[in-house]
């Protein structure tokens, strides 16, 4: 018995040595230390949360929850806005359909003449007839485009579906056939009809659009486009933008920018390309995207000799000169001979000839009154306005009797 009691006492003592700290403590002590870390003071295992509103962790959690709630409300508001906008569009569409169904076919929209005069379109067409001689087919094409725009405006008034037609243009023909003049008139018509904010025309060539080094082309092209916004960008001799013999030519970059603008900004910019017909046809074969974006192709024929004489009469009228009746025959002879020579430029050649005739008239008048002293040096208004056959005969003689190597420059 003594041996058993000793063994039991030893076992109890050993168990007490290895028992947890709570063993042998009172219930009050255990309850008081219930929040203590049973594994000791190990920082990585400490709980850092809590319900204390003053703690930083609690504040960050509340802030995150608040942000999530705000974001959720934003998403819901945007979804509600889109749904409401779609509903409004559906209501407007149904109202429009009902309006169109109830509208009688005889509903008046106003006369075409009223729209033509009200918008100033007829005035521009009259100026085109007044300023340009000949070009009957060109004028007819311009009138057709104007008719489309007028009827489009009338359809809008009644509520029909409308869309901005493709107004990009291609002008082909020899120099001096009126391409730039027609472009200016078209810009003014588009402005009158509300299809262009400003209606001005910006003339550009390759030098205005294409740079000389990497990174230079895009800014130059975009600058010209910026100047033309709200009007017409007329690219003269557009085929020079593309160089088929040089894959590294910077003109391709300019073309790509123009194509993008023609597609995405057609409601605020009309691009017109111009040049010789054969070269423009070849250019379009290289750049089919340009061809597909142009809806109006207008070919400008060469003027006849009689039409060029009429152009000279218009120029003299605008400059307040009087051409003698006999002088017209002499001028026509000059035009017929000049047309046989290279570098003939239609109306530009007429303008150069008129400048030469005016100079000859001035020399003749100066010598008569200032040098020879006729009438005491006093000339009349008629003398200051007169262009005679003699003035045209001088430039005709230059190409008939002059040095053959210089005739083309006469």
From TrEMBL:
It comes from Skeletonema marinoi. Belongs to the CbxX/CfxQ family. The lineage of its organism: Eukaryota, Sar, Stramenopiles, Ochrophyta, Bacillariophyta. CDD domains: AAA. Residues 325-392 form the CbbX AAA lid domain. Residues 170-301 form the ATPase AAA-type core domain. The keyword Glycoprotein does not apply. This is RuBisCO expression protein CbbX. The keyword ATP-binding applies. Residues 58-85 form a coiled coil. Keywords: ATP-binding, Coiled coil, Nucleotide-binding, Signal.
């Amino acid at each position: 018995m003594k041996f058993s009691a000793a063994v039991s006492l030893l076992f109890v003592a050993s168990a007490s040595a290895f028992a947890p700290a709570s063993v042998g403590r009172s219930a009050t002590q255990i309850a008081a230390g219930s929040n203590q870390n049973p594994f000791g003071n190990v920082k990585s295992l400490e709980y850092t949360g809590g319900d204390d509103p003053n703690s930083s962790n609690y504040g960050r959690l509340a802030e995150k929850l608040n942000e999530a709630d705000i974001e959720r409300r934003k998403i819901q508001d945007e979804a509600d806005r889109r749904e409401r906008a779609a509903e409004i569009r559906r209501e407007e569409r149904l109202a429009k359909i009902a309006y169109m169904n109830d509208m009688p076919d005889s509903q008046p929209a106003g006369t075409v003449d009223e729209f033509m005069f009200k918008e100033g379109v007829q005035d521009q067409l009259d100026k085109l007839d007044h300023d340009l001689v000949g070009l009957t087919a060109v004028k007819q094409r311009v009138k057709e485009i104007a008719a489309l725009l007028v009827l489009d405006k009338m359809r809008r008034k009644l509520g029909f579906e409308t869309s901005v037609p493709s107004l990009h243009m291609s002008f082909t023909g020899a120099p001096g056939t009126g391409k730039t003049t027609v472009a200016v008139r078209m810009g003014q018509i588009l402005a009158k009809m509300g299809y262009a904010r400003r209606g001005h025309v910006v003339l550009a060539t390759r030098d205005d659009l294409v740079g000389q080094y990497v990174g230079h082309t895009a800014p130059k092209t975009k600058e010209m486009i910026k100047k033309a916004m709200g009007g017409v960008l007329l690219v003269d001799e557009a085929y020079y933008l593309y160089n088929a013999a040089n894959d590294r030519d910077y003109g391709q970059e300019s073309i790509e920018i123009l194509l993008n603008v023609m597609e995405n900004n057609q409601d605020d910019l009309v691009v017109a390309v111009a040049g010789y017909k054969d070269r423009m046809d070849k250019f379009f074969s290289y750049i089919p995207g340009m061809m597909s974006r142009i809806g109006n192709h207008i070919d400008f024929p060469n003027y006849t000799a009689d039409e060029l004489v009429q152009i000279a009469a218009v120029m003299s009228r605008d400059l307040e000169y009087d051409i003698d009746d006999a002088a017209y025959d002499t001028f026509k002879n000059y035009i017929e001979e000049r047309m046989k020579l290279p570098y003939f430029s239609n109306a530009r050649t007429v303008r150069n000839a008129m400048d030469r005739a005016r100079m000859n008239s001035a020399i003749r008048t100066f010598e008569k009154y200032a040098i020879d002293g006729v009438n005491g040096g006093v000339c009349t208004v008629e003398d200051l306005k007169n262009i005679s056959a003699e003035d045209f005969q001088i430039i005709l003689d230059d190409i008939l009797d002059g040095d053959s190597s210089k005739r083309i420059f006469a």
